[in-house]
Amino acid sequence: xxxxxxxxxxxxxxxxxxxxxxxxxxxxxxxxxxxxxxxxxxxxxxxxxxxxxxxxxxxxxxxxxxxxxxxxxxxxxxxxxxxxxxxxxxxxxxxxxxxxxxxxxxxxxxxxxxxxxxxxxxxxxxxxxxxxxxxxxxxxxxxxxxxxxxxxxxxxxxxxxxxxxxxxxxxxxxxxxxxxxxxxxxxxxxxxxxxxxxxxxxxxxxxxxxxxxxxxxxxxxxxxxxxxxxxxxxxxxxxxxxxxxxxxxxxxxxxx
Length: 256
Fold this sequence. Notes:
Protein name: ABC transporter ATP-binding protein
Organism: Nocardioides bruguierae
GO molecular function, one term: ATP binding
CATH topology of the domain at 6-91 and 165-255: Rossmann fold
CATH class of the domain at 6-91 and 165-255: Alpha Beta
Strand content: 15-25%
Function: Part of an ABC transporter complex. Responsible for energy coupling to the transport system.
GO cellular component, one term: ATP-binding cassette (ABC) transporter complex
Oligomer: single chain
């Protein structure tokens, strides 16, 4: 088996106030996988994600275990490269869009890596093409709809050419059309995806594999359809499907 793109081994973490958020988490994701990270509020999902590119590290609390991206340890000496490899798209696009135009926002990261001129312009347009937003390149982000801003936020990360795209609640606050448009974008990307979500139908639609985190531990790692049809597991870890949603029927509809 090849080296995982993401290799989390025995990761434990306690905040300075003594709250233990993670207890020996193991998570291995290979190139090209799309994995949903599921779990109730307070499960440790955000704490785990913040370890993936060094936002949280040993200095922020008491830690044990390791995280590596394509064999490169997530450590202080490697943070610049790790943060290029692991792109996080936050739940609120306005946390990532702060420049006067879409072009400037998407160019910000690559420019900080030293890209200039025509090469920078190409990188910007390639990223916007991936999310279907090239026609908005010179618009101020605050003139865009929420769904359009979320796609531009994805483009700001894609412009860094990451190995892993981490999405925090990507479908939240989207209308049905925007939700579908973003799903089409995510399916088309040639990048490894880790999607943190409470939107279980979205997880089923986009991620063949699901990992359930509960009380700081991985309690399930299986095909998404198996997780969502395991009623005992779902109940035990406070996961609920929308009323009337039948995951098995949804899979039959998309594959039949």
